[in-house]
Design a protein that fits this description.
With 284 residues, the chain is of the alpha+beta class. The chain has 9 helices and 10 strands. Bound molecules: pyridoxal-5'-phosphate.
Length: 284
């Protein structure tokens, strides 16, 4: 079941979530879109009221905070991706964090063929004994990848600060332009800015989004559209009979979204060049 987003932040709307809970609902999965944590007070309330597991997709929000609390502590399970496009990378791979032993044990078995102990544990206990108790797979991350991830982790706080600075420059530049509407940011969040996303208002422009995209691309400015609403992908349409009209706020936003370049190595010159070209193409 899909719940619609809030039109300004594009984070899941808790009222929508509450209205879609049924007898069969087992979990709420929320996406911290663009790097801003969802409203975990509201989501936690709904989860507790209906005895659901709350899973945070925190792939965009590593290093962010909500009400002074770190992402990773806000849900029962929080998932992170270390794919190369994310804040920090291990080449491929990811991480799930939880405060609950029962989930941690289950996930450790799941990544290790459903086996009750790994070879480190067996050696430290001086034992050869293990059993396969669940169906599991080999989802183990390698030590090489972890070495890369640990060195990246040290750089994360500085990188997030830089991303916030870049966002500030963009916000300032677009504040006076009604046709460009950066995503809403709530006052009680520390934003990780995986993405800098604007909604552009086609009714007030002479140019449509595809042409804006093409012109910026031609200038070597790597804009993007994040994302096609999940329920509109063929797999979901085919398997779950989802269709347009199911989540109208996300569908309306999708028509208007454009993500501007956002990476810590951007220089002031880079930022100004993006702002200059974006304004020029939009307002001509
Ligand atoms: C990247 C990403 C994923 C998938 O991560 P993988 O490492 O490819 O599994 C899931 N959700 C969000 C929001 C992401 O950005």
């Amino acid at each position: 079941m899909f719940a619609d987003v809030e039109p300004d932040t594009l984070l899941v709307n808790p009222a929508e979530v509450a209205s879609k809970v049924t007898e069969r609902t087992k979990a709420i999965i929320s996406v911290d879109y663009a790097g801003q944590p969802c409203d975990y007070n509201a989501l936690r309330n709904i989860a507790e009221r209906h005895d659901l597991i709350l899973v945070a997709d925190a792939c965009h929000s590593i290093g962010a905070q909500f009400n002074g609390k770190n992402v990773g502590t806000l849900a029962d399970l929080s998932v992170f991706s270390f794919h190369p496009v994310k804040h920090i990378t291990t080449g491929e791979g990811g991480m799930v964090v939880t405060g609950e032993t029962k989930f941690a044990e289950k996930m450790r078995r799941f990544r290790n063929h459903g086996i009750t102990s790994d070879h480190h544990q067996r050696r430290s206990q001086g034992s050869w004994f293990y059993e396969m108790v669940d169906l599991g797979y080999n989802y183990r991350i390698t030590d090489f990848q972890c070495a890369l991830g640990k060195s990246q982790l040290d750089k994360l706080p500085g990188w997030i600060k830089r991303r916030q600075e870049i966002a500030w420059y963009y916000d300032e530049a677009f504040a006076e332009i009604p046709a460009i509407e950066p995503l809403g940011v709530k006052p009680d969040v520390y934003h990780a800015y995986h993405l800098y996303v604007c909604q552009i208002d086609p009714t007030s422009l002479q140019i449509d989004r595809d042409d804006i995209f093409k012109e910026l691309y031609a200038k070597g400015i790597g804009v993007n559209v994040h994302y096609i609403p999940v329920h509109l992908h063929p797999f979901y349409r085919n398997c779950f009979a989802t269709k347009p009209g199911l989540c109208v706020a996300s569908e309306a936003a999708y028509e208007r979204l454009i993500s501007l370049p956002m990476f810590p190595e951007m220089t002031e010159q880079d930022i100004n060049a993006v702002i200059f070209s974006f304004k020029k193409i939009l307002l001509k």
